[in-house]
Design a protein that fits this description.
- The protein is an alpha+beta fold.
- The chain is 43% helix and 22% strand.
- The protein has helices at 10-27, 67-75, 92-98, 132-158, 166-183; strands at residues 31-38, 43-51, 61-63, 79-81, 105-112, 115-123.
- A six-stranded antiparallel β-sheet has the order 3-2-1-6-5-4, with helices on both faces.
- It is globular, with a radius of gyration of 16 Å.
Length: 184
């Protein structure tokens, strides 16, 4: 499946934006973002950002192996780092280039058909030590929802209008209406 990278439709952008906004508020974080992998360019592309950097980062690109997001994308494993000064995977230079250098990051991969297609990150979440594993599990669920939503939208769009079932067309229209009302 080919997912949108840097050319996401308005519906896909609203879907991704709603996921990062929910993640940011759920974790009381300074910021949240979704990177999608552009396999042709070998890069991670900011597709949605909430909080710090939300006005300027969408469309920005980093080499695929860069930082925590690069490691999560390559390994397919979630990661939680509460003190980035102690992480060998953190790229301070990449963070500085965004205009915001976090102290902590929680990141989860987005999968489609057993392939990592992107990464959901939460920066500087409100820390509650007793919830660390629960936080990572919840972030994994949000990442799954983002990936499933993208896959459904992509599949519906790939099917010609004359081949879509009435139910599929209604689902697409409902998703677009819900996202439109949420981001009006």
């Amino acid at each position: 499946m080919t997912l949108p990278v840097d050319g996401a439709t308005p519906t896909e952008r609203r879907l991704l934006q709603s996921i990062v906004e929910v993640a940011r508020h759920t974790f009381g974080a300074a910021a949240s973002s979704i990177f999608l992998i552009d396999p042709g360019a070998g890069e991670l592309v900011f597709e949605a950002v909430a909080g710090e950097g939300d006005g300027q980062l969408v469309g920005s690109r980093f080499p695929a192996g860069t930082g925590i997001a690069g490691w999560v994308a390559a390994s397919g494993q979630s990661m939680l780092v509460d003190d980035l000064r102690e992480s060998k995977h953190f790229s301070g230079d990449a963070a500085a280039s965004t205009g915001y250098v976090p102290n902590s990051i929680m990141a989860a991969p987005l999968f489609s058909a057993d392939e990592c297609i992107g990464v959901l990150e939460v920066l500087d979440r409100g820390v509650n030590g007793a919830r660390e594993m629960a936080d990572v599990e919840l972030l994994d669920l949000l990442a799954d929802q983002a990936a499933i939503g993208l896959e459904l939208l992509t599949r519906l769009r790939a099917t010609g209008p004359d081949q879509r079932s009435d139910k599929a067309l209604r689902l697409l229209e409902m998703a677009e209406a819900l996202l439109e009302s949420a981001h009006g």
